């Protein structure tokens, strides 16, 4: 894939060929059509310099494999400004009406170059246009015409400055808008996945709860019958194993529905962020290894939150950190109050993640854990919840140096509008 400067330069080469042919047509039209004698030799030589530079540059670009520096694009446009100045000097100087073409070069630079390069080209163009006034007395001996030409130069400088400023502002605004659209599309895609996951959990719970309940009841009755009949211990153990596996299937369905965002009548409550952390760490295996550092304001400020969902998010992140760290290794948790948001960081001392694994972390059902230890939904659902809050999840991991997970959300708490989707909230698992 070609880089942006290669694309810009390829189009610039095409525009230069069009400009060169246009210059030849104008020179011949003025000289032959209007009957105004021109210095054809120097004019054609200047056009030839532009054509030779364009041909050489085109050959060089085709053979080059490395990215093209932005300075080269600026140098080509600067050469065009100088050549235009020579053409104007040979055909009337500052009084030549085609001096307005300087603005074309500046406008083009404002579109394809960064701000610093664009201002540099504008300064060059203003200096070249000003140089034309050195020869103005040779063409105009009237003082009022001199003032008129100087006014043209001032108007040019003002217009050039406005073009650079506003085009750069528009370009930045469009780039920011495009970034917002990309982020919105990503959030919509995650929401669609969350909805699909909730639907899958609801369907699985609905379809499997009845047969699992039937199996559990029959297995219980069979166990009682075998016990009364004095059957072998191995037969009773097999029946108990069936009941255990049925209970495990129920637990998996319940966890799947909970991870998908099931909210079984949960209400919002006023809680301090520090209380959420304490609730998340309560009865967590390995809790003694978690070193917490909480901002004092996290104990003083109270916010409207969905306590269960949010504490489960924190619990899942800390649990991942504990599992990634070696036995006995500490996990650091920090909660800090920023001007407009809360920032919670969890750092482990594990093996870290390779770049390819880090790139996929957060995808639904992607996990590096052993079977039975997780379904790969924790980070995905954490990011989905934070997206709805207006926050974000950031993963920073280096192989051999552990992983840092950063959760940020706006200060003010989880509002009702940030609750999980209605589709997810309808997910229930039959007891």
Automatic annotation (TrEMBL):
Keywords: Kinase, Membrane, Transferase, Transmembrane, Transmembrane helix. One of its GO terms (molecular function) is phosphorelay sensor kinase activity. The keyword Transferase applies. SMART domains: HATPase_c. This is histidine kinase. Pfam families: HATPase_c (PF02518). It comes from Melittangium boletus DSM 14713. Signal peptide: none annotated. InterPro entries: HATPase_C_sf (IPR036890), HATPase_dom (IPR003594), His_kinase_dom (IPR005467), HisK_dim/P_sf (IPR036097), Sig_transdc_His_kin-like_C (IPR004358).
């Amino acid at each position: 894939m070609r880089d942006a400067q290669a694309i810009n330069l390829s189009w610039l080469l095409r525009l230069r060929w069009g400009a060169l042919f246009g210059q030849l047509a104008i020179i011949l039209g003025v000289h032959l059509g209007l009957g105004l004698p021109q210095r054809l030799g120097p004019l054609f030589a200047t056009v030839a310099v532009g054509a030779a530079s364009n041909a050489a540059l085109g050959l060089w670009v085709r053979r080059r494999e490395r990215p093209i520096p932005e300075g080269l694009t600026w140098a080509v446009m600067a050469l065009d400004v100088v050549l235009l100045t020579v053409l104007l000097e040979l055909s009337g100087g500052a009084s030549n009406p085609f001096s307005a073409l300087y603005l074309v070069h500046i406008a083009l630079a404002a579109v394809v170059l960064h701000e610093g390069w664009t201002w540099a080209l504008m300064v060059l163009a203003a200096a070249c246009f000003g140089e034309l006034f050195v020869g103005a007395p040779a063409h105009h001996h009237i003082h009022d015409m001199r003032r008129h030409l100087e006014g043209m130069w001032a108007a040019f400088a003002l217009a050039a400055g406005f073009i650079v400023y506003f085009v750069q502002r528009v370009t930045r605004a469009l780039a920011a808008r495009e970034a917002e659209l990309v982020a919105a599309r990503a959030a919509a895609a995650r929401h669609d996945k969350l909805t699909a996951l909730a639907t899958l959990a609801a369907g699985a719970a609905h379809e499997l709860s009845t047969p699992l309940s039937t199996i559990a009841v029959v297995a219980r009755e069979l166990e009682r019958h075998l016990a009364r009949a004095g059957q072998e211990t191995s037969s009773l153990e097999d029946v108990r194993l069936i009941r255990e596996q049925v209970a495990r299937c129920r637990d998996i369905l319940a966890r799947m529905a909970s991870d998908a965002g099931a909210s079984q009548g949960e209400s919002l409550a006023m809680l301090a962020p520090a209380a959420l952390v304490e609730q998340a760490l309560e009865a967590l295996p390995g809790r003694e290894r978690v070193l917490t550092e909480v901002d004092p304001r996290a104990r003083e400020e109270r916010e409207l939150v969905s306590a269960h969902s949010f504490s489960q998010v924190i619990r899942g992140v800390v649990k991942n950190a504990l599992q990634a760290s070696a036995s006995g290794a500490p996990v650091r948790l920090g909660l800090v109050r920023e001007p407009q948001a809360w920032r919670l960081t969890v750092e482990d001392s594990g093996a870290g993640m390779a770049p390819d694994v880090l790139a996929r972390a957060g995808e639904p059902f992607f996990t590096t854990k052993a079977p039975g230890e997780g379904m790969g939904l924790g980070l995905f659902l954490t990011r989905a919840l934070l997206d709805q809050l207006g926050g974000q999840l950031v993963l920073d991991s280096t192989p051999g140096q552990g992983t840092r997970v950063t959760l940020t959300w706006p200060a003010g708490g989880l509002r009702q509008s940030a609750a999980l989707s209605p589709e997810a909230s309808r997910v229930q698992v039959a007891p």
